[in-house]
Every structure is written in C-alpha cells, then in structure tokens.
Amino acid sequence: MTSRPAQIAAALLAGVLFGFGLALSGMLDPARVQGFLDIFGNWDPSLAFVLGGAVVVAFAGVTLSKRMRRPVLDTQFHLPSNNRIDARLIAGSAIFGLGWGLAGFCPGPAVASLSLGLWQTMLFVAAMLAGMMVHDRAYRTQRAPAHRPA
Amino acid sequence: MSAYLSSLAGGMLIGLSAAILLVLNGRIAGISGIVGRLAQGANISVNLAFVLGLVAGPVLFLALFGSWPQVTITVGWPLIILAGLLVGFGTRMGSGCTSGHGVLGLARLSPRSFVAVLSFLTAGVLAVTLLRGMGL
C-alpha cells in the first residue's frame, strides 16, 4: 500500500506524538535545556532521560524496520546514505550546538512551542529558517561555481 | 509526576513517533530536515502534516493537563536572533539536529551521528558556560 492520504495521516500522528512528547518531557523549556547543558554550574541532568527513553524506543523501531523489505506505506525506505565523518559534519554540528546553548532551543521544541504564541519562539524560528537559507545559498555557489574562462 | 519520570515518558513518546514514521513511511523523524524540506517545497503534504502535528502536540498537553507546558526564556532578542541563525545554518551544514542525529542516529548506531551528537553537546555546554561566565 502506498496511499498518499495514509502517509499524511501517519505523519500527522507521528507529529502529534512528537510534539506532545516534547511538551511532557520538559524539552520545550529553554531554561531547563540550558540547565542540562550547564554541567560546570547548577547541572540539571533530568533531560538525559528524554534522549535515553527516545533512543531505546526508536531502536525497537529501527530493529523492526530492518526486518521489513519496505515500509508499510511506501515502496522503499528513505534513509541517509552518507556515512562520511568530515569537517562539515563536525563544524556544522558545533555551530548548531552553540546556537542551541545560547537560547536553549533546538528545531523540534522551537517549532512545537509556536502554538504558545510567544514572540521569542516566532523570532527564533524565523531566524532559523533564514540561517538555513543562508547556508543553502552559500553552499550552492560553493559547489557549483560559475563558468570561468580558462 | 517527577521531572525524571515525565522526561522519560516524554522521551519514549518521541521515540515512538520516530519508530512510527520509520516503519510506516520509511522516513527519518529529523525535525531540521523535515522543516528544511518543507521550506524548500519538497513533499509538502506529508511534511506539512508532520509539522502541524508537532505544533498541535503542546495543545494536546493543554487539553489533558489544563495548562501549557513550561517555557521560560531568559535571553533577549539579539541573542535569540543569533541563536536561531546558528541553529538553522549549523543543522543544514551538519545534516541534522537533536532528533535526526540524536534520537534516530544513535538508535541506528550510526558512527556519523555519534560524532555529530558529541560535537553539538560539547558546543552547547561551551555556549552555556560562556553565558554563565558573562552573568547571563
């Protein structure tokens, strides 16, 4: 079965579970996220349980998926094939981590907490989208230089 | 419910969401990737459904518990803009964030994601330590 409406319904269900899980876990609270990262100060380790719980359950899903020839609602799995560990991966993740620590928001909680209508999360999400566009523009020109006369 | 228990329960729901998206749709629940592809106009209906569900999650929390989840923001707008730019740029450059690399990458035992998680956790600790050093 590869019905588009079923895929949409599955994505909606997964999104609601993800957003509710974030809300329940405390990850929506930037002060707690910063407390989790404040290992040299007043460290709050509770958010480690979010990642721990998520990885264990996701691992069960990954194990199940490996026994399937294709996902239930599509003809093939769409998984990342890149396994290079390079400067882009390390530098990009470090840049992300700096931003994560400075405001206490990563992409999931920032988008999920838009429903609270706070100007700070709206501003953060707008800046995040701008940051994505800046990267894509810079990367495109870097990867595909204009033809130069020899 | 104690903070540890609700964190664990919330984390398990996030893992369940990732498992559902993988087993049913064959996709990785990486938020920066999904939001980025939506912004680029790729696979709009499915990605939009996920993002709308994500935004609806806290509303379900409100309906069940009678109050919004706690969101305490202590930094001002210049730092919010800077942080947002860094998060957007960095997640594109590193191809993922706390969900794609953190949850799915670790669950898939991807060495690439282990390195990414180590890198963003280290940088996050550095950023908070710097903020605290400046009295913020």
From TrEMBL, chain A:
It comes from Pseudaminobacter salicylatoxidans. Keywords: Membrane, Transmembrane, Transmembrane helix. The keyword Transmembrane applies. This is Sulphur transport domain-containing protein. The chain crosses the membrane at residues 47-64, 85-105, 111-134.
From TrEMBL, chain B:
The chain crosses the membrane at residues 6-24, 44-65, 71-93, 114-134. InterPro entries: Sulf_transp_TsuA/YedE. The keyword Lipid metabolism does not apply. GO terms for cellular component: plasma membrane. Its main location: membrane. It comes from the Bacteria. It is found in: Cell inner membrane. It is a multi-pass membrane protein. Keywords: Cell inner membrane, Cell membrane, Membrane, Transmembrane, Transmembrane helix, Transport. Belongs to the TsuA/YedE (TC 9.B.102) family. This is Sulphur transport domain-containing protein. The lineage of its organism: Bacteria, Pseudomonadati, Pseudomonadota, Alphaproteobacteria, Hyphomicrobiales.
